[in-house]
Structures are given as structure tokens and as C-alpha cells.
Specification:
The complex is a heterodimer of chains A (540) and B (208). In chain A, 37% of the residues lie in helices and 18% in strands. Chain A is built from 18 helices and 21 strands. In chain A, helix 14 (410-420) links the parallel strand 15 and strand 16 (426-431). The two termini of chain A are 41 Å apart. By secondary structure, chain B is α/β, with parallel strands linked by helices. Chain B is built from seven helices and six strands. In chain B, helix 3 links the parallel strand 5 and strand 6 (133-136). The chains are: A alpha/beta (540), B alpha/beta (208). At the A-B interface, strand 8 and helix 10 of A face helix 1, strand 2, helix 2 and strand 5 of B. Strand 8 (178-185) of chain A pairs antiparallel with strand 2 (43-47) of chain B.
């Protein structure tokens, strides 16, 4: 087992996310920050529960992934270990401190737990965070099961402190949300508070940044050497003339099928990046064919031809033998393993209707969408730009109330662009938490240029979609905030989305659509799920 | 399929597809079975669905029990011993996972939150094509147990006759889960469990 761990203690059933969080606790993490996002949310929820029980570690939701990572950089500068949690698209938001964080002199271990969503169960894309680690030139660890998710954290923090760079731990949905028994170890103590003795390495003015960049480039050889000797990169011999390379969960899908393979191919599993070049070359030697199985983009497969010394046939996603889109599973890798399809037991009836997710019965967003539709009715051309949250479901029929969902906070900025392009009735629909995450900056543009946009902030007092986490600011702070940002007080309206107020709400929205400037309508009613949870917590 | 007995076969393996509609308690049913299986010394993997899909949409969970290590979190197609569904339409959705001699065990009552839900006749016809389909009157059995909300426990009970888990340990797990809510709640949930088990057992007898 890797360093930093002690004798096994107890065995408990944990989600992959929870196992990772437990591993961070055992590794002596002092502070954890994150923004909720499926499939990463349960990491922070577990840490927050631990904080409630034991007082440590500090576990906090942040306004967005960028502030979360910057807060963690501050922790690291002070010598303590910090964890940052986010979903894959959250790393786009935090990309600035991530790429530049690789150049500073990391002191306390800094680990990013980033959960990718192959198959897009709850996301707008399938981006593969291993590319980000490669881009930032920092190590990446990729657990293949719940136990590894727990055990790798000690290594991740150790690597970060040994090489003074952030380390990325890549989760995927199926591991994040799958439960298995995990051995928990005795916790390592937290680092003492000790500010960096190399403060110049934190000031990335060009002259210093050039030195830091040089250092990061020369470090690459050591990072590669660490991967060569890593316990997470494991070779298993076989007797077939071909071999299989797996990463992450693909290992399990291969092992599920391996008993049917005779002769069995040799197997190289990769759990630590940068890629172990020497190990890959050794593994490929003498083999006629390599099969590459990896969840996400063909990261390993794309790099192999440049790594291997002789031409070997490579089969995987790029070669068309494994589906490029969606998740791997125990069945869709059988073709590349030259196993026949399993006999289909029974066909699914063709006439089976789908059951897409939908807003809860009585959800305040439903009432908002109804008065929005009536207010826009007969006004001619319009754009309803929207954002990410439960209210994104308003795009589905029969509501069909919103027209865009691109990225966090884009609703307001896109409505600004549409209005400046000449579109009348430019409306932005955004949730309270998404507004605080990254909608505010769009509002600054809007106010500064007096763009005629009508912004609906759906204030349900919580982060609903991810399971009702607290928002950063209470509802009472929203109206003063937008007034403070420069929206005229007379055009900041607070309404209650209930059927009995429908006509009033239509009238108010029409008044603001008529106003040739920036208006903000705060549509405020508490999330039903959140209210239910409050009641559950209130009863002993 | 009979109960996968521990004696006789060399290994114990039970792959279960759990399904239903977000909010119906699919994950609760899975958690009870998984906890009891772990208490009975089995290896357990449970893949869950969180996030957007839980908002009134189709929910699918893979639960794998084994006395040896489990490789994948997902069940291969055509390999599930049991589909356990909280409502009939959802059970049909995952038929491609069911073994040819597997059992589709579903609560009888439809969950109606979509406009194009099939008529009872069409639904019946679709279920009739599945040799291992068994319907449990879960809501009325829950009512009978004195706890309308014990539908989950009825379905755990119905599933229990197909599970490689001792009834004693299953009862003990449920008793511990509800211990903080008092003896009365424990007793009613255990009643629901037994009613579900009896219903499934009667159907298994009549169709074998």
C-alpha cells in the first residue's frame, strides 16, 4: 500500500465520492472547498458531515469553483493541506487558478477532486479532466474502485508536497455514485500552520514566472519517474500475443470479461499520470496488438503511437473498435476483446414511453414559467436565455419556456449580447445560486452599458438540483446586492410565484419588459425539496 | 429461478437491477438489501443514480451481491438474476439486463407522471411476454401492514425470497434501521416485509 497510511481500521460501505473524502480526512486535510455539481457533490457533503461530528476538517461550499481553488491556494501557502471538489465543467471555471497554481510553490498538499460525467447523466458535455492535468503539467491519479479512491488521497497529498504542484484526482460518475466496502485507516495529523519560506515563488510577475515555468518543465522528468514506480500502475502477465491497457473503471469492465478470454492477454493498468513511458514500451515489446480501454476521451490511445518504439496495431476509441461517445460498460468492450455479444434475453417493448426528469409537483419554477409565458405572449420576437439548475428542465415540453443552456452564468451575458444585436425582449432566467456563482459579472456588463435586458432571478433559497445545499447569501441579501450593483431600485421587483399572484406577476414582468433599461425581477419562493429536508432535520 | 442457495452451488452471486421513478425510494430499497447482504458477509456493489435523473425521471441502480470479489459496478446485459421495480413500466425498461430465467418483480401500481403511460391492457400484454414477471400489490400490502409508507419494505420482502441473505439478518437490519423511531415502527416495517415475502412466495409457487 502507498505511503502515509497506517494499519487498517474499519470496513464501511461508501460511495466512491465518500471514499475519496474519507481518504482526504485520513491524509490530514485541513480545509476543503467546492461548488456543488453532480457527480462530485457527495465528496463535500461527507466532509461537511465529518466537520459537524468532529469539528475538523473545515469543509465549505464556495461561490464557485474558481474561488474555491483560490481559497485552497491560500491554505497551501500557509502550509496546510487543502482539497477542492468540483464537477468536470467546474474545472473550466477554475482553470485560471489551476494552470497558474502549477507554477507557484505549493507547500501544504493541494489536491483537486474533479468528477467527470461520461455519458452526460447530469452534464452538458463529456470533457475528460486528464487533459487538464496534462495541460497544467501536474500529476493525475485515477482510481479504479472505491478502495483506491480512499487510498490514493494519501498519495495525492504526498505527491503534491513532494513536487510542490497541485495534484488532480479524476473521478467518474459510475465510481462517484457506486457503493462498496472500504477499509479506513488511521488518520495522519494535519500539517502545522507554516507560511511558505519561498514567497517570491508566489508572485508570478513575468521574470519570476519564467523561472517557475522553467522549474515546472524540468520537473516533468521526475513526475514521469514517479509514475514509472507508482503502485497504481500495475502489469499482469498473460499468455496471448496481444495485450490490454486499461485506465480507471475500464479495468473492472475488462476483468468482468477476462475469465472468458483464453489465452488471456497481458494487462497493464494505469492509475497514475503522466504516462509511464518506459512501462508502456516494456509492455508493448513483442506484442502484435494493443487494446486500449479508457473511460472518457482516448487520452492514452492518442499518445501511444508517439511513445512506442515500434509499430503495433492499436485498437480502441480512435480506431473505431470502442464507442467514442458515452460510458464504457461490461458489454460495449466485448467486440474489441473479440468476444461474442451476450445473447439478448428479452427485447425491451418498442412502444415503451420515456420518462424524462421533470420539475417537482408544485415547484415554484413552474409558476414562474407560467407568468413568463403569459407576459411574453403577443410581444413578438424575444429570447429567453437561461442557465443551469432545476429550472433547465423548463426547456422540455410541455413548458418549452427557456431557449438556452450553455454554461454557468451564461444567461445574463447571452441576453446582453442578444439585446445588443438588436433583439427586443431579451430575457435572462437564472437561479439564485447560479447568479452568485457567475451571473453577477454579466450583470456588471449589463448595468455598465445600460443594456435593455430583463433578468429573472429564480430565488428558491437553495441549490436545488444537487440536493438542496445552502446558497452563499440569504434571500434577503439579493435585492440589496443588485441595487448596489447599479440596477435602479424601482426596477428591482420581488414577486411570489404562486397561482394566486399570476396576473400581478404577468403585469409586473410586462412593465419591466417595456422599460428600456436593466430590470431584475426576483421570483422568490422556497424549494419544496429544501423545505422537506428542513422538516426532516427538525424532527428528531 | 429459485433462491440462489448458498449450499449446492460453488459460489453465491446475485445481480439485481433496481428501478423505479425518482422519489419512489429505489435507493432506500437498495440500501436495505445492500446493508443486510454486507451484514451476511457478502461482497456488495451498488451503483446509484443521483442528480438530475432523481427529479421524477426513470431511476436505475445496479446491485451486485457475491461471496467473491465483484469486478464491475455495472451488471452485464442478460446477466441479472432479478429486476426489482417500484412500478411496472420501469421494470420493462431494463429487460435487456435480465437473464433468460430471471425474475421481473414489480410493484403492481403504476406511477403516473407522464402523459403517454400505456393503458392497463397494453401494459398487461407487455408483461405477459415476460415469463418471469411477478406483480406485487405493494400499496395494498403496505396499507395492510398499518403503514402506507412501507411500500419499500413490502418490495424488500418480496425480493427476499430470491436473495442469498438470511431472513434473520434482513429482519435485524431493518430493526436497526428503524430502531430510533420506536418498537411500533419497527414492528410495522417487519410486518410489511413478511407480507411482501408471502405474496412473492405464493406467486412463485403458482407459476412454477
Amino acid at each position: 500500500m502507498p505511503s502515509g497510511t497506517n494499519a487498517p481500521m474499519t470496513r464501511v460501505a461508501l460511495l466512491g465520492d465518500e471514499a475519496l473524502a474519507q481518504g482526504a480526512i485520513d491524509a490530514g486535510v485541513s480545509c476543503a472547498y467546492g461548488y456543488p455539481g453532480t457527480p462530485s457533490t457527495e465528496i463535500m457533503e461527507y466532509l461537511r458531515a465529518a466537520q459537524e461530528r468532529n469539528g475538523r476538517p473545515l469543509a465549505r461550499w464556495s461561490a464557485n469553483e474558481k474561488t474555491a481553488l483560490e481559497e485552497a491556494l491560500g491554505v497551501s501557502l500557509c502550509g496546510r493541506r487543502a482539497l477542492v471538489t468540483m464537477k468536470h465543467v467546474g474545472l473550466n471555471v477554475a482553470a485560471d487558478p489551476f494552470i497558474n497554481g502549477a507554477l507557484v510553490d505549493i507547500r501544504g498538499g493541494l489536491v483537486l477532486a474533479v468528477a467527470d460525467d461520461p455519458g452526460m447523466h447530469s452534464s452538458q458535455n463529456e470533457q475528460d479532466s486528464r487533459f487538464y492535468a496534462d495541460f497544467a503539467k501536474v500529476p493525475c491519479l485515477e482510481p479504479a474502485d472505491q478502495q483506491q479512491a480512499c487510498d490514493m488521497m494519501a498519495d495525492a497529498f504526498d505527491l503534491s508536497e513532494r513536487f510542490h504542484v497541485p495534484v488532480l484526482v479524476r473521478m467518474v460518475t459510475r465510481l462517484a455514485h457506486s457503493r462498496a466496502p472500504v477499509q479506513i485507516r488511521l488518520p495522519r495529523p494535519e500539517n502545522p500552520l507554516q507560511k511558505t519560506d519561498n514567497p517570491g515563488a508566489w508572485v508570478l510577475l513575468p521574470a519570476a514566472a519564467r523561472q517557475r515555468w522553467h522549474r515546472l518543465l524540468t520537473l516533468q522528468e521526475e513526475l514521469a519517474a514517479a509514475a514509472e514506480s507508482s503502485v497504481w500502475n500495475v502489469e499482469t502477465p498473460g499468455d496471448a500475443p496481444w495485450g490490454v491497457i486499461t485506465t480507471g473503471l475500464a479495468r473492472n469492465y475488462f476483468l468482468e470479461n477476462a475469465p472468458q478470454l483464453s489465452p488471456c492477454p497481458a494487462h497493464l493498468h494505469i492509475g497514475q499520470y503522466p504516462l509511464p513511458v518506459a512501462a508502456l514500451r516494456r509492455f508493448a515489446a513483442g506484442k502484435s496488438r494493443l487494446v486500449v480501454l479508457e473511460e472518457g476521451y482516448p487520452f492514452v490511445e492518442e499518445r501511444l503511437p508517439g511513445i512506442l518504439l515500434s509499430a503495433v496495431e492499436i485498437r480502441g476509441k480512435k480506431s473505431g473498435h470502442v464507442p467514442v461517445e458515452g460510458e464504457l460498460d461490461p458489454d460495449n468492450i466485448r467486440e474489441v476483446l473479440e468476444l461474442p455479444n451476450r445473447p439478448a434475453a428479452l427485447p425491451v417493448p418498442q412502444e415503451l414511453p420515456g420518462r424524462p426528469p421533470q420539475l417537482c409537483r408544485g415547484c415554484p419554477h413552474l409558476d414562474t414559467f407560467r407568468f413568463l409565458a403569459d407576459a411574453l405572449n403577443g410581444r413578438g420576437p424575444h429570447l429567453v436565455a437561461s442557465d443551469i439548475g432545476c429550472y433547465s428542465l423548463g426547456a422540455l415540453p410541455p413548458l418549452s419556456a427557456i431557449e438556452t443552456l450553455v454554461c454557468m452564468g451564461a444567461s445574463i451575458s447571452m441576453a446582453v449580447g442578444a439585446a445588443e444585436a438588436g433583439m427586443a425582449n431579451a430575457v435572462a432566467v437564472i437561479g439564485d445560486s447560479t447568479f452568485l456563482h457567475s451571473g453577477m459579472t454579466g450583470l456588471v456588463d449589463c448595468v455598465a452599458r445600460r443594456v435593455p435586458v430583463t433578468i429573472l432571478i429564480l430565488d428558491n433559497g437553495t441549490v436545488g438540483m444537487t440536493g438542496a445545499q445552502e446558497t452563499m447569501l440569504p434571500s434577503s441579501a439579493l435585492a440589496p446586492l443588485v441595487v448596489g450593483m447599479g440596477v435602479p431600485e424601482s426596477h428591482v421587483r420581488v414577486v411570489t410565484p404562486l397561482p394566486k399572484h399570476h396576473d400581478d406577476n404577468v403585469r409586473i414582468l410586462q412593465e419591466e419588459l417595456d422599460y428600456p433599461g436593466v430590470s431584475v425581477i426576483i421570483s422568490r419562493r422556497e424549494c419544496l425539496e429544501w423545505a422537506r429536508r428542513q422538516r426532516r432535520e427538525a424532527t428528531p | 429461478m429459485g433462491a440462489p442457495a448458498k449450499a449446492g452451488g460453488d459460489t453465491v452471486k446475485c445481480d439485481i437491477i433496481l428501478c423505479g421513478v425518482g422519489g419512489q425510494g429505489v435507493l432506500t430499497v437498495g440500501a436495505v438489501i445492500a446493508m443486510a447482504a454486507a451484514a451476511d458477509g457478502l461482497e456488495v456493489r451498488q451503483s446509484e443514480v443521483h442528480g438530475m435523473a432523481q427529479r421524477g425521471g426513470a431511476v436505475l441502480s445496479h446491485l451486485r451481491l457475491s461471496d467473491t470479489s465483484v469486478a464491475a459496478d455495472l451488471i452485464p446485459r442478460g446477466c441479472a438474476d432479478l429486476i426489482l421495480s417500484m412500478e411496472p413500466l420501469e421494470g420493462l425498461r431494463y429487460l435487456r439486463w435480465l437473464k433468460s430465467d430471471g425474475v421481473l418483480l414489480s410493484a403492481e401500481e403504476p406511477f403516473l407522471n407522464i402523459a403517454d403511460y400505456p393503458s392497463p391492457e397494453i401494459l398487461r400484454a407487455m408483461l405477459d411476454k415476460v415469463p418471469g414477471a411477478r406483480l406485487v400489490p405493494a400499496q395494498s400490502l403496505a396499507q395492510q401492514s398499518g403503514n402506507r409508507r412501507a411500500v419499500n419494505m413490502v418490495m424488500v420482502g418480496a425480493a427476499s425470497i430470491y436473495l442469498p441473505i438470511s431472513r434473520l439478518i434482513l429482519r435485524d437490519t431493518i430493526a436497526r434501521m428503524f430502531a430510533s423511531k420506536g418498537n411500533d415502527v419497527v414492528a410495522r416495517n417487519l410486518d410489511a416485509l413478511e407480507l411482501g415475502a408471502a405474496s412473492a412466495a405464493a406467486q412463485a409457487r403458482s407459476s412454477s
